[in-house]
Amino acid sequence: MEVSKHLLDRMTHYTTHVAAVDAEHLSILSLADRMRRLKGNDLLNAVNQIVLLWKANSATEEQLMADVQYPYSANHISDHLRLTLFFKSLPNNYGGELLHRESDILQRMFEHIDHYDMPMGQYIADKNSFKKGLRVAIPL
User: Fold this and answer.
1) CA distance to 28, 77, 133, per residue, from 22 (Å)
2) Res. 138: pLDDT tops 60
3) What does the DSSP assignment read for the chain?
């Protein structure tokens, strides 16, 4: 997987600290980043690959949320559905010309990571720390 320095620099901020999720994000984002250099069937194949990668990422996150009983999973899953519709629309919207749609993909992914995935990752980290006894519960 080819990853640009610019993308890696951005990803240092947009990490969930859940290795599997971060790896899936990097796959999607690096493919979207490379799309500006693709044309024709290569571009269409990349768009279809992003749809598949997104579905896999959504399934991973939804399983994690179920496993930890994440209290905000309904909103998170709702955003997965919204982005799924966006990603599925890409093959129809691209046509013959690339109008910098890869930046739309990057922007929407970073927004999703920032608003939904990073808080989920923090919740998982906090819950795991609490289970391991690394945090002390303070009674109210």
Assistant:
1) 10, 17, 25
2) no
3) ----HHHHHHHTTS--S-HHHHHHHHHHHHHHHHGGG--HHHHHHHHHHHHHHHHHHHHHHHHHHHHHT-TTHHHHHHHHHHHHHHHHHHHHHHTT---SHHHHHHHHHHHHIIIIIHHHHHHHHHHHHHHTT-S-PPP-
The torsion defined by the Cα of 85, 113, 6 and 17, in degrees rounded to 10, comes to: -140
What is the C-alpha to C-alpha distance for residues 79 and 61, in angstroms, rounded to an integer?
A: 12
At 102-113, the pLDDT tens digits run 678 889 999 999
Residue 64 inside a domain? The answer is yes
CATH code of 13's domain? 1.20.120.50
56 assigned to some structural domain = yes
* pLDDT tens by residue, 7-33: 777 777 888 999 999 999 999 999 988
pTM: 0.83
Residue 41: C-alpha distances to residues 46, 70, 120, 139 (Å): 8, 40, 36, 60
Structural domain tally of the chain? 1
